[in-house]
Amino acid sequence: MSAADGGATEASEPDGFDVRRVVQVLVIGRGGERWRGSGYRVSGNTVLTAAHVVRDAISVTLRFLTEDGVVTDVPAEPDPLWEDSGVDIAVLKIAQDAGSRGMYALEVPPVRFGRITQPVDCESLGFPKFKLRIDIASSELNRTTQYRDSHHALGSTTPWADLRKGTLEISVSAPGADPEGRSPWEGMSGAAVWSSGYLIGVVSLHHATDGPGRLTASRVQRWYKSLSRDQIDELSELIGLPTRAAHLTRLPPPSAQLQLADDDPAEALAREVSRQWRKEEEQRRVHDPFPLPLRFRCTDRNVFDHWANIRKLPRGAAAHPLPLDGELDQIVEAYLSVPSSRLVVLGEAGAGKSILTLRFLVDWLDARVPGDRVPVIFGLGSWDPAATSLRDWMCAQLVRDHPFLAAPAAHGGSLARALLDTGKILPVLDGFDEIPSGLHGKALEALNKATTMPLLLTSRPDEYSRAVNDSKESDVLTAAAVIELEGLTVEDYGDYLTRASRPVRGGGPDSTVWDDVLARLRETPFTPCSANLAEVLSTPLMVSLARTIYSDAPGQDPRELLDFPTPEALQKHLLAAFIPAVYKLAPTDDRDADRPRRRRRHWTPEHAQHWLGYLAAHLAELRTHDLAWWQLGTAVSRSTRMLVVGFLAGMALGVPTGIGNLPVDLVGTTHPLGFAIERGLLVWLLHGLVAGLVFGLVYGFARRGPASEPSTLHIQLFGGIRRNAAEIVRRFVLGFSFGVPAAIALELLDRFVIGPLGFDDGLSGGLRGALLFPAELGLGAGFALAIMAWLETPIDTTSAISASDLLRTNRKNAFVYMLVWLLVLGLPAGIAIGGAPGYLGEFATGPVLGLLAGLTFGIEGAFGGGLGYGLSFTAWGQWVALSRIWLPLTGRLPWAVVAFLDDAHERGVLRRAGAVYQFRHAQLEAHLAHTFQAHHASRRPSSPIMAEREPLATGSTSP
């Protein structure tokens, strides 16, 4: 049944092109003139057409034409429901009295809208002038009437024509010349343009200079750039247009072979990245009450390549600038309009670069289909282009933040490397200015070597300008367009601050604490105090701080912001007041439901300020913005770290050895209790001292560089991807090489120190024991490490990627290490001792006690060897020794470090970026670090933290 007959499908799913919904628009103007256009019924009572078709109309009739040639005319309201001359589209409403004809209030499936990214085929059905026909039936009655028949135009279009105007150029078969010299396409205006069942434009013009084979259409994708947010919302309500350009379906759709399985690593990465950053967007309250209206424009700075290179034009083609101006929610559209797919975003500190990259990532993923690239944010501050290639560094970052990508790929290498090499990753490189200035040239050189790699890069303007202009060797980023963020105005943030504040009772329904301040900014913008505040609030960061301090916290009066003499003093005030304001508020409890819940702790503003300041100073020393739990202890001097690790490792071996000596001597010898206690204390002291020295020295010499990286593997008994044999053998050799010398040292200690002191209990086993003990400990350590290497498998794609989850995985691995040491050392030792009568001299009491003795040795080995190894060589062990014991003990961090970091994240002080935390902005981090260091220096001339700091060789710098 046709729409004209009153029928409509009951389907609610979006529909593609339907000939029954095409209309001819018949218009009578104010002077009695008549003209025609085309349109498409987009809902039960609305029709989409071109705005110029119904301009100055006093009567509009909609003519539906079915496949059988049946014509049905229905009236429309002469005044459009919605129109805009800029994009030349209008929405008509079918008149109320059309209900008797079965047209009004009928529901039809919504329309699907798309955006093109490559040349595509397209089609359009309208009523052009060259389809003017004489009605044969009317001529037989001696009267001649004319009508326009439909024309189904089949053609093609490309996203790279008419870029400046932002319209679609449609190539179609050319009709013959019009006998009256007019355009043969008159009447086609308003026809919907379709591609693969998606509406991509509305026919609006025919330029005579283009020839008869070209039509111009208003591009759907361009509407988002030309219309206001309110207009887009109205169109969304009327015709179902998506509220964001990124939600338009990408055309052409991926081919069938790109419809990848759910277990494809790229699709798994896309799900994980989306989950992570959507959560972060919620945490940052980007949409509460609405996003700040950030705007960007094509930069005026001389920092970009030739437009011909950016547009990838052939040799000799004329190159014109791309129209890249837009707002925050148009960043994906702006990026897609750059043929080279390389875009640089410049913005001052706090201007909103991080929010823009987050919006880009989320909008891209909203519109992404299987097979598209996966956008991943990489913080450039940790890249040393002089030491590490771009791809190697990105590969390491991917594995750190998404551990399942450490798994081997089918053709060699890791999954992370395979995704990079096959072009499945869209790098969002955040913070070019955070690379040390002396390395900017090498960074640009590395980026320019990857000329085919699409990317989005952010930087502060001055640093980027110096990088590309300050030396003869400098160069622009090849084929990259450059846009720059603009500052906010009082109209941009005024409504935001008002709606984010609680109403002030008695001051009117919309009265807030910001009323007087905003009135001053609007009425007297050029007074010094108003100008200072307007300058500071021109960045989203400062607006966000002001909102937290004065809108969220009760009892604060923002009028004090008008009392500061300079913008710098005002900015410093906002940064200083942020932490106290945040920690006076109760944190929100929006943790994931599947995460273990911790007891809520309340940190005082003073303690929080101190601890956060220490963390910020720690990051400044490391020259990075990534707050990684495994690096927290590196702020302590190497000598202190050696002492702490050595002491704990010595206690780990000495305590169980000394305690384990008591039952062995009491049961296996005739010595009294006093002897057993004295010998146990001596063994505790000497074994602990030797173990402490060995582990401390090994740690000190092995850890001259950066801290141990956390393991991105977990322990899995069955299934999973196993290590290759070479790695298992390497681990065995490492354990054997470490175990044998350690056993010899302990054996010599027992025979040449403890024995001569009169504490030989006769259980040494003589020469046989002296030979077997090193072999047993060496083989046990080797097998323990080899078994662990075999048990380790990459974390699966369902695992979380937060810092606390990675820490939890490493802690579990460490405990499994100790269990393996117990089983490998304890059971074999027990069996050997129990099955070899006379092996331990007087201790020849049968297999039961032998097995118990062996288990005792196993427990000693588990705690001594396992924990000592963990403390010295694993990220979790060093975290425990330094961040969970030493730093809290010296007052530099709280005892519950992870809980504090999670709480700071919930309060909006920190943000999560994969497996690490970051301060919400580098300015806040720098302020906290400076305040902490200044306060620390004022208390005593040489502070422990400054004395214990040891610069590490990294390739990044703090701004």
UniProtKB/TrEMBL annotation:
SUPFAM superfamilies: P-loop containing nucleoside triphosphate hydrolases, Trypsin-like serine proteases
Gene Ontology BP term (one): proteolysis
Keywords tagged on the record: Hydrolase, Membrane, Protease, Transmembrane, Transmembrane helix
One Gene Ontology term of the molecular function aspect: peptidase activity
Signal peptide: none
Residue ranges annotated for the NACHT domain, each copy included: 341-462
Region entry Disordered, spans: 936-959
TM region(s), chain numbering: 682-702, 732-749, 769-793, 814-836, 848-869
Name of the molecule in the record: Serine protease
Annotated source species: Streptomyces kasugaensis
